[in-house]
Amino acid sequence: MTPEYRDVPLRRRGLNARVLSAGSGEPLLYLHGAIASTGWSPFLDIMAQEYTVHAPLQPGFGEVEGLESIADIIDMALYYFDVLDELGIKRVRVVGHFLGAMVAAEMAALCPHYVSRLALSAPTGFWRDDEPVRDIFIMSDDEIREGMWYDPQSPSAEAVLSEQASDEEKARRVLERSIDLAAAGKLLWPIPDRGLARRINRVRAPVLLVWGDTDRVVPLAYAREFSDRLENAKTAVIPRCGHLPMLEQPEDLARHVSAFFREP
User: Which CATH superfamily hosts domain 6-262?
Assistant: First the structure.
């Protein structure tokens, strides 16, 4: 059963976080990306068999309150530290995707003692003129389907972007995405470089970098950009996979992340 969002009071901020939680075992924090990776996923179903998974919704996404208090990537990291504090979690494994992976890397750099291990799926945070990160803010439904999946006709693509949806449903989908992207834009627009390169050397947690072999949003070249700046990192490339492994290849993603988290 898909868990439902619950409000977690952030007493220091005077507002509520919205969090999905399920599973049992040690805690795992999942930070979502910008498009199609919010909410619960098949990947989190698998991870919840071994961990207590907490998947907060970023302020501004789904109209979650608090976006006005987020001025930059540092504020976003501090917000999630407040969420962890309210959940009573002092040290945690973190999985992040795209935007969420950038925030997760910042968290591990700012307060290394909070993060025991870090799995970053298609993280953003750096910029290369010769290999630009795709501009997700101008992508249509068709461009998202073609650009984010290895197989644009896969069941996971159809589940997110059903071609059989009514005009009303498609319009609502576009509106909801516009709201989410407005929130993401605070951290990603015009380019997703917010100074992570100046701080990433502070990361002490072991890091797993995970890429789909046909990611057309964050080119695989960025795996080297991250690994060259981290003192303890390894890279896993998932075959037949685009930008959304938690939807397209959840078993492979879970296999890589679970094996990495079990390492001594």
Answer: Alpha/Beta hydrolase fold, catalytic domain (3.40.50.1820)
